[in-house]
Amino acid sequence: MEKPKKKKISNAPNYNRLHGAPHGSTLKSSVSSPAFPLSRHHVHFEENIGENGPNGVTASSSTSSGQEPFSGFDEQDSELQCVMRDYGLEAFRNIPATNTSSLPKSSDHNSEHNQRLASTGISLCGGVTSLLISYPCIVLRRQCQVNHVGRKYHLTPFTIFSVALNLQRAQGVTCLWKGVGSSILLMGFTTATECGISELSSGKCSRDITLNSTFSSFCYHLALKGVTSLLMTPFYLAHLEESVQSDMVSETPSILSYISCALSRLFGHTQSPRILPLYRLVLPNALHFLLRYILSFVLRQMILSIIRWNARRRHEERLKRLQPSSSVFQKNSEHMPSRIPASPLAVEDVSSKLLSNVHYPDIFASFVAELITDVVLYPIETVCNRINIQGTRTIIDNTDTGRGFLPVSSKYEGFWDCMSVSITTEGILGLYRGFGALILQHSMKYAIVRTAKFTLELISGNI
Question: Cβ(205)–Cβ(220) under 8 Å?
């Protein structure tokens, strides 16, 4: 009796079956491989063995599946091309609609490294702008504010140019940067005080808040700012005195003289009886600081919301205008890319990773909020500066001509007395002395904001 032949069993599937060869194709045995299911379909095989490599396998690309790229794309449609470029859809024209695995995540220009680099650059640019451009205008503005006997109010920037030129000719280029060292020290003391209070409160008094913060967190944050402004009032008074003092009659003060002046104002060791005591100056200055902070924060968030709403509205209008003419933007089109954003400012959108879309709205909103805050609170700032400098025997530059100097002599009883006397003797415009310096300051800052936008667009590749 003949023994039944044993069926030859291979220990492992062949090479072609390991890589997902379909049934009916020519197979070539392999040596050893674990069992593998026959469900993989990314590699297509031909029956001609040996012509296309040692294993007789021909892998066809994913674009040979007969699928067509976008239909309805018009190369002459400039508006459609603009929309696709804005939302990162340029690379989709030669990619099949069903192949979503190869969609571009983000370009090199929009990488996380560039985002961090742009944030650092913007912070440094803001600090340099405050020291090099804003600070000279602040010095001119303060000198005009405390000079209540001046003939010229300098309500426009055109009248203040000649004064600045005459001051630089008589005292040197650095005359408009007097007190810049104490300004940097004041910012450092303020930051250190806020960090210390936040640590002592075990994080309840947070230094930063957002719109998603609770009401109690917002109250704690305002308490942090209020206490900090109260503690920093003597140092601000010393800095104000240093920033308006004329260089023609005094030497450049040192850091020790600044700190000693602040401590003298703190403990009441003053030589003039006309200086208002600190407890009468703390409340107006602290309220002015808090009001400025709250107003600028609210305005900034409102402007950001308006910018986002306007961008979303324009995005929807453009898509509505393009949907009837191009199947690329049809909602039910099978060729529509799955990455077309629902909103141009959404976090997951390709366009939101552009540097100009991420950073410029925040820069512009901060600029507009600061401008409105400075204009609204300008009279209060004038009154506070006048009562702060009273009795300090400070000699300021002559803001009428820019040549010579004059003493500050006033005798106010407090905040409201200073405001009423100023309106009575100088008129309501007396509280806006030096307003031209504020206009000049924000005009130069606006030029820097536009330059920052151009730079961000250039880095992002939109130009």
Answer: yes
SS3 assignment, position 405? strand
Per the CB < 8 A criterion, the answer to whether 431 and 419 are in contact is yes
**How many angstroms separate the CA atoms of 94 and 62, rounded?**
12
Higher pLDDT, 441 or 80: 441
Report the phi/psi class of residue 393: left, alpha or beta, with left for phi > 0 and alpha for psi in -120 to 50: left
pLDDT at 48: 44
> Which of 58-72, 354-368, 437-451 is predicted with the least confidence, judged by mean pLDDT?
58-72
Max Cα-Cα span within the chain: 134
Burial group, residue 434, by CB count within 10 angstroms (0-12, 13-18, 19+): buried
Q: Residue 393: which pLDDT band, with cuts at 50, 70 and 90?
A: confident
- Beta-strand ranges (E) seen in 74-195 are none
Mean pLDDT of all residues in 136-165: 91
Of 45-54, 402-411, 427-436, which gets the smallest average pLDDT? 45-54
Round to whole Å and give the CA distance between 362 and 126. 13
* Cβ-based neighbour number of residue 312 at 10 Å: 15
Does the domain at 117-460 match CATH 3.40.50.300? Answer given as: no
- Among 86-100, 108-122, 207-221, the range with the most confident prediction by mean pLDDT is 207-221
Domain ranges in the chain? Answer: 10-43, 117-460
Phi, psi values for residue 261, rounded to 5°: -65, -40
The single-letter code of the amino acid at 361 is: P
According to DSSP, the residues that pair with 406 across neighbouring strands are: 396
